[in-house]
Design a protein that fits this description.
Elements (H helix, E strand, L loop, with lengths): L14 H14 L5 E2 L11 H12 L12 H15 L8 E4 L2 H12 L5 E6 L4 H8 L3 E6 L10 H7 L4 E7 L11 H12 L5 E5 L15 H4 L7 E6 L12 E4 L2 H12 L7 H12 L3 H22 L14 E2 L20 H12 L1 E2 L1 E2 L9 E4 L4 H16 L3
Helix pairs in contact: 2-10, 3-10, 4-5, 4-9, 6-7, 11-13
């Protein structure tokens, strides 16, 4: 009889963390490695936000808070939802967790029963299916292919819904593809959801502010107010405010759901880091102008990476609307052999050979539920990106 829980057999470790760890180990061993796996901005946390954290320490604001967040932070979150999304929430409808991941996990743990299904468009963030499995549910992946710019269609959503469907997880702009849904594209999906009142919506808006060109972000409860009472709108300060390590995520939704999530959190981690909460208040209430400046840099990098990857033999790279990822297809590389003798049977073999032979670390597409592709994070310097894309071009050119 195994000492470990059988639940662990249902899940796997995060592949993105595995790639980042492998790249770090190779780098520590003296290898020339360029890591394009990490999903975090390379910008520093803005000074005003860091200063707010320091001020909280100096003022002795270092004690426990309510399990799911400071009243002051919940107030700032309500103001953010009203300002940015036209959504009205009260503090009693808000939950704050130790990162966006905890928020999603709490909601799934609080609502899923064995046999409950959760629809997840693929490519998906690697943690969605495993969190559903940990919570006892069944993930139902629906492929949103490159042919439709990695976006789910209304027809696909309609076909995936069954009497067992409890949640639809929606992520725009997307990790890993960067695909962002327009108002009309999202309205087509919400029209389907309005016909199925037993299905709840979990909207992961973590990349809300990282959008480019004339693309305008929107979120389900904003597009279809009729979904307000069964939508959990999730966000956080990690990406737009370059605060990944501060670990603050938040969500707003119906009070009964928020209360259930609070119960889960009160018996697991309890409150998120107090210092980080005070810093997050400054992030949400303070100046927002640096976001546009950062986005201009991200857009420049995106355009360079897309152009260079499309110049690689066998690679096709769509231009995403947001986030800081691209998700190129390597269909033209499958079946070939690398200069080092590795047969490219799938995207995992491609990524492994690429790392071993060129020192470029990417995450293979199977980790995100759609192959044959790989994910590049362009949240690193222009010079590193240019060198990495040149190495990818050379690697592909030498496939035979």
């Amino acid at each position: 009889m195994s000492f470990l829980s059988a639940t662990l057999d249902r899940v796997k470790p995060s592949p993105t963390i595995a790639v980042t760890t492998m790249a770090s180990e190779l780098k520590a061993a003296g290898k020339d490695v360029i890591g394009l796996g990490a999903g975090e901005p390379d910008f520093d946390t803005p000074e005003n936000i860091k200063n707010a954290g320091k001020a909280a320490i100096d003022a002795g604001k270092t004690k426990y808070t309510a399990p799911d967040g400071l009243p002051e932070l919940k107030k700032a979150i309500c103001a953010k939802f009203k300002r940015d999304n036209g959504l009205d929430y009260t503090p009693a409808q808000v939950s704050v967790g130790s990162g966006g991941k905890q928020i999603l996990y709490n909601a799934l743990m609080a609502t899923l029963n064995p046999g409950d299904e959760v629809i997840i468009p693929a490519p998906y963030w690697v943690s969605y299916p495993d969190m559903v499995l940990l919570a006892g549910g069944e993930p139902v992946a629906v492929a949103a292919t490159a042919a439709n710019a990695y976006k789910l269609t209304a027809e696909q959503l309609e076909a995936a819904i069954t009497p067992k469907t409890k949640w639809f997880i929606f992520n725009s702009p997307s990790n890993p593809t960067g695909a962002g849904y327009t108002w009309d594209e999202l309205k087509a999906l919400t029209d389907v959801l309005m016909r199925h009142p037993h299905v709840w919506v979990m909207s992961d808006d973590m990349y809300e502010h990282l959008v480019y060109g004339d693309f305008e972000f929107c979120t389900p409860a904003q597009v279809e107010p009729g979904l307000y009472d069964r939508t959990l709108t999730c966000n956080g300060v990690s990406k737009a405010y370059a605060m990944t390590g501060w670990r603050i995520g938040y969500a707003a939704g119906p009070e009964k759901l928020i209360a259930a999530m609070r119960k889960i959190q009160s018996q697991s981690t309890s409150n998120p880091c107090t210092i980080s909460q005070w810093a997050a208040i400054e992030a949400l209430n303070g100046p927002q102008d640096f976001i546009a400046s950062n986005n201009a840099i991200f857009k420049r990098r995106r355009d360079m990476v897309v152009e260079m990857l499309n110049a690689a033999e066998g690679v096709t790279c769509p231009t995403p609307e947001g986030a800081f990822y691209v998700y190129p297809s390597i269909e033209g590389c499958i079946g070939k052999t690398s200069a080092g003798g590795t047969e490219i049977v799938d995207d995992e073999a491609f990524a492994k050979a690429l790392l071993e032979e060129t020192g470029v670390a990417v995450v293979f597409g199977a980790a995100f539920g759609l192959s044959p592709c790989f994910r590049v994070s362009y949240a690193t310097s222009d010079a590193a990106l240019k060198e990495a894309c040149t190495r990818i071009q050379n690697f592909c050119a030498q496939l035979s």
